[in-house]
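Field log, afternoon session.

UNIT: design team B
ACTIVITY: writing a sequence onto a fixed backbone
BACKBONE:
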């Protein structure tokens, strides 16, 4: 069995897509996932399954769509892959709360980075299916707009580290 981490997009943020984490755990269990645990109130869930990443994503998106009455995008990583995301962090000396990992379903073309205007001291690095964004002055002050954010979901390094740890415990 593989440990997976599922990151729900646009759930419990800004008053949209409200879903209690207890309901998310129950939904995952009904979908056949085992040893289900959630983290924080922002749509992070860790579980085990014999299914492939693609099958996990499809099953979870179907179940969430039925529950929420609208499509809910889910980004899925195997636990080991999430650990490798931490190892690939291009900003090892940065405060973890100021580095956001934008998870994407597929690795974008490197040319998309040329379309991102950096308004301040932010830095953006693409590594595989993840875009690492360093906000040295804090995300709340940044004017940075990342077009890829519309198709992915972001978590800061503290959250990624905790999710990787939870997956490893499975």
């Amino acid at each position: 069995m593989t440990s997976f981490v599922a990151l729900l997009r646009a759930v419990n943020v800004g008053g949209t897509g409200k879903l209690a984490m207890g309901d998310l755990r129950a939904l995952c269990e009904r979908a056949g996932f085992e040893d289900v645990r959630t983290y924080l109130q922002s749509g992070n869930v860790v579980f085990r399954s014999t299914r492939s990443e693609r099958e996990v994503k499809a099953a979870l998106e179907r179940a969430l769509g039925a529950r929420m009455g609208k499509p809910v995008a889910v980004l899925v990583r195997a636990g080991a892959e999430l650990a490798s995301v931490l190892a690939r962090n291009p900003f090892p000396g940065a405060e973890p709360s100021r580095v956001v990992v934008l998870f994407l379903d597929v690795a974008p073309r490197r040319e998309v980075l040329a379309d991102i205007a950096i308004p301040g001291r932010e830095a953006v690095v693409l590594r595989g299916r993840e875009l690492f964004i360093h906000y040295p002055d804090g995300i709340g002050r940044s004017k940075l707009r990342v077009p890829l954010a519309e198709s992915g979901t972001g978590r800061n390094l503290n959250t990624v580290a905790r999710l990787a740890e939870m997956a490893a415990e499975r």
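LOG NOTE: Strands lie at 2-8, 34-39, 44-49, 74-78, 99-103, 123-127, 130-134, 153-156.
NEXT ACTIVITY: expression trials, pending approval
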